Amino acid sequence: MPEAVLEVEDLVVEYGSGRTAFRAVDRVSFRVRRGTTLAVVGESGCGKSTVAKAVMRLLEPTGGRILLDGQDIAHLPERRLRPLRHRWQMVFQDPYGSLDPHLNAEEIVTEALRMRGRGSRADHATRVRELFDLVGLPASGLGRRPGEFSGGQRQRIGIARALASEPDLLLCDEATSALDVSVQAQVLELLRTVQRESGISCLFISHNLGVVQGISDDIVVMRRGGVVESGPTADVLTSPGQEYTRRLRRAALDPSVMQGRKPRHLVRQALSASA
Question: Which residues lie below 8 Å from residue 241, measured CB to CB, with a gap of 6+?
């Protein structure tokens, strides 16, 4: 097995064609080491979510390679992609819009199990309960619909749904940005626990260096479609080599730009760190 579960090489994504084409991603390269988390960070519009869509093959890249365990999936037709799609799953940004409001929580997670075509109904029911326990949700919530859960609980359902396919790679696209700061911490801790227990690899997309500091092993900083800086997270955040990264770091430590509710202890920590 290769050391990297995912390798992205010289990825290019353009919207439109000809003289009006806009290059949203310009020769981006990185690798996600097996059992680790790579964070892709940058301000809104830098191209990080387009990278996520290309990796998920929700769009076909203009150029470059996307290697999943050594197999290039960048330009595979859908009929060849479909049997592979369970191997990489996504946790979406919006916990309110990413779950079908007409299904209950058990049906949402079971749907992912049925798509794989394995196991009986009894097997599915058992697995759903195991996943609920893993993500910290009570079995009493299985029959409830998304509207009856909080935002953090909905995101836990989304994580359970993604894990139901037993993926090698979990892609989180701003998976905590719509949550209050205190709930963000809970979801991040859940993702760390899941990784410790399952050995899954993660690609974590975020605009906030503060969010990824405690969850990622490696980091890629993007600006205007390209890579500005990359390396081990501790090294990049401790000694940023680029002014753009330093600005992102300062913003992550500034309570005035923290999203969601701001518990006093978090504000004090941020003020101390930025002093």
Answer: 229
pLDDT digits (tens, 9 = 90+) for 112-159: 998 887 788 999 999 999 999 999 899 999 999 999 999 889 999 999
Domain assignments of the chain as residue spans, ordered by start: 4-94+168-274
Q: How far is CA 20 from CA 10, 27, 58, 83, 199, in A?
A: 22, 19, 22, 35, 44
pLDDT at 42: 93
Give the C-alpha separation, 11 to 16, whole Å.
Answer: 16
Cα gap 5→218, rounded to integer Å: 14
Residue 257 has a pLDDT of 44
Contacts of 152 (CB under 8 A, 6+ apart): 95, 179, 180, 183, 186, 187
Q: How far is Cα 132 from Cα 21, in angstroms, rounded to an integer?
A: 45
CA 73 to chain centroid = 19
Mean pLDDT of 97-123: 90
Q: Give the model's confidence band at 275: pLDDT under 50 very low, under 70 low, under 90 confident, else very high.
A: very low
Alpha-carbon gap, residue 99 to 236, rounded angstroms:
35
The C-alpha atoms of residue 117 and residue 18 are separated, in whole angstroms, by 43
Residue 114: phi and psi, rounded to 5, are -65, -35
For the domain bounded by 4-94+168-274, which CATH number is listed?
3.40.50.300
